[in-house]
Amino acid sequence: MVLQQLGGSISRALQQMSNATIIDEKVLNECLNEITRALLQSDVQFKLVRDMQTNIKKIVNLDDLAAGHNKRRIIQQAVFNELCKILDPGKPSFTLKKGKTSVVMFVGLQGSGKTTTCTKYAFHHQKKGWKPALVCADTFRAGAFDQLKQNATKAKIPFYGSYMESDPMKIAVEGVERFKKENCDLIIVDTSGRHKQETALFEEMRQVSEATKPDLVIFVMDSSIGQAAFDQAQAFKQSVAVGAVIITKMDGHAKGGGALSAVAATKSPIIFIGTGEHMDEFEVFDVKPFVSRLLG
Ligand code: GDP
């Protein structure tokens, strides 16, 4: 994953600073500029990077640090905390309860990995004793239902969809109703995507959301999205009540930083990351271990 390069660059900048005999304003600035460059090169949004730099400078006031304080540790800790802050919206995602019916709606652009992620999410919960079910409300993309059906069958998860019906709302409502009757506790609705952010897509999402009243809306984003990430995530958030984010293709060669902006844009936490095409290539996302790993 190329995000590791970002981690490597930040660690090197911190190490260089540590090698300096005296840590003064100049050394601190050089270190922060290096970190800023690394973040921007990884497509993290400019405003986030600028805020991070300002915050670190505020926390690390070299003049105020009494002699004997370990400046290096304070700076390293500040960098760690600021990276965590970018990834932590400050509130956890809505917690679903096993045994109590929850409807979870997935949204995202076509190709983001939404359908694959729906099954991974269902499979993850099934292994933990939930009773998930999948509803294919994507009537836009030919083959979407077949794909969901194939994945669901492989994972032995019940599914609902139609080759004939073209109204996504009708399918969504029927599917949710059916699985409620069957006492499924996690009903996952896969919605349609488009290649671009289009009015028609957002209108359809709004309608499916109104019709199915999801307990949680999960926004799926491809980690290779780059600088377009912030605007895209914000556009989705403005249309439906996104409550959590899943970043896919973290195994790929994308720079990855853009996807981090999705947290700031949606004010929602990343709850899982996709690390491959297979059903079990899916990891729970926790901010602190992730940043620790990133910084090595
Ligand atoms: P959708 O159009 O958003 O529903 O996207 P799909 O679920 O059809 O996924 C598009 C492509 O991305 C497929 O070839 C998936 O196998 C692939 N994909 C999805 N998630 C991941 C991931 O985490 N890693 C990798 N390498 N590929 C993924």
TrEMBL record:
One of its GO terms (cellular component) is cytosol. It comes from the Eukaryota. Keywords: Cytoplasm, Endoplasmic reticulum, GTP-binding, Hydrolase, Nucleotide-binding, Ribonucleoprotein, RNA-binding, Signal recognition particle. Residues 269-282 form the SRP54-type proteins GTP-binding domain. The keyword Ribonucleoprotein applies. It is found in: Cytoplasm; Endoplasmic reticulum. Transmembrane segments: none annotated. It catalyses: GTP + H2O = GDP + phosphate + H(+). Its main location: cytoplasm. GO terms for biological process: SRP-dependent cotranslational protein targeting to membrane, translocation. GO terms for molecular function: 7S RNA binding; endoplasmic reticulum signal peptide binding; GTP binding; GTPase activity. The keyword Endoplasmic reticulum applies. Belongs to the GTP-binding SRP family. SRP54 subfamily. The M domain binds the 7SL RNA in presence of SRP19 and binds the signal sequence of presecretory proteins. The NG domain, also named G domain, is a special guanosine triphosphatase (GTPase) domain, which binds GTP and forms a guanosine 5'-triphosphate (GTP)-dependent complex with a homologous NG domain in the SRP receptor subunit SRPRA. The two NG domains undergo cooperative rearrangements upon their assembly, which culminate in the reciprocal activation of the GTPase activity of one another. SRP receptor compaction upon binding with cargo-loaded SRP and GTPase rearrangement drive SRP-mediated cotranslational protein translocation into the ER. Component of a signal recognition particle (SRP) complex that consists of a 7SL RNA molecule of 300 nucleotides and six protein subunits: SRP72, SRP68, SRP54, SRP19, SRP14 and SRP9. Component of the signal recognition particle (SRP) complex, a ribonucleoprotein complex that mediates the cotranslational targeting of secretory and membrane proteins to the endoplasmic reticulum (ER). As part of the SRP complex, associates with the SRP receptor (SR) component SRPRA to target secretory proteins to the endoplasmic reticulum membrane. Binds to the signal sequence of presecretory proteins when they emerge from the ribosomes. Displays basal GTPase activity, and stimulates reciprocal GTPase activation of the SR subunit SRPRA. This is Signal recognition particle 54 kDa protein. It comes from Lupinus angustifolius. The chain holds residues 1 to 296 of 483 of the full protein.
